[in-house]
Amino acid sequence: MLCAFDQQIFPASSEQEIHNFAYDWNVVSVLVVHYSHKETRIGQNIIPVLKFALEDHPVFVVSSRASILPAWLKGNRTLKTAIRVAINHRIRHLTIALWYAATIKQPKIYTCFASRS
């Protein structure tokens, strides 16, 4: 289900790629958010929280793989959702550093940034 929708946005993606993203050995939690309009899924966001050690101190890293159908660019809430997950995780673990790794894999986002530069 995740892979089939993801391939609508990223035709070259594979089920193994999604599996590797969501089931990394360092993942401590994964949130999957589905975005819908009426009864139709228009997007999804896979948000893993990974735990690493940096100089013997734990560090959380939040990432995101968002897929939104091209017709729904104006209603794109994927970045806000990922940031909200990062903030909520940070609140629960105040003593552990948290990094949000922003990567742009969404073709529409490239267009959005290019139109503003």
How many strands?
5
Q: What percentage of residues falls in helices of 4 or more residues? A: 25-40%
Tally of helical segments: 4
Oligomer: single chain
Structural class: alpha+beta
Shape descriptor reads globular
Q: Can you tell me the residue ranges where pLDDT is under 50 for at least 5 consecutive residues?
A: none
Question: Radius of gyration, Cα only, in angstroms?
Answer: 15 Å
Main sheet: strands, sense, barrel:
5 strands, mixed
Our measurement of the CA-to-CA distance between the termini, rounded to an integer number of angstroms, reads 36 Å
Question: What series of H and E elements makes up the topology?
Answer: HHEEEEHEH
Average pLDDT figure:
78
Strand content: 25-35%
Describe what you observe in this structure.
This protein is of the alpha+beta class and 117 residues long. It is built from 4 helices and 5 strands; from the N terminus they run ααββββαβα. Strands 1, 2, 3, 4 and 5 form a 5-stranded mixed β-sheet that branches. Strand 2 and strand 3 form a beta hairpin. It is globular, with a radius of gyration of 15 Å.
Sum this structure up briefly.
This protein is of the alpha+beta class. It contains four helices and five strands. Strands 1, 2, 3, 4 and 5 form a five-stranded mixed beta sheet that branches.
How do the helices and strands line up, and which of them pair or pack?
Elements: H1 2-9, H2 15-22, E1 27-37, E2 40-54, E3 57-62, E4 65-68, H3 78-92, E5 97-100, H4 107-116
Parallel strand pairs: 3-5
Antiparallel strand pairs: 1-2, 2-3, 2-4
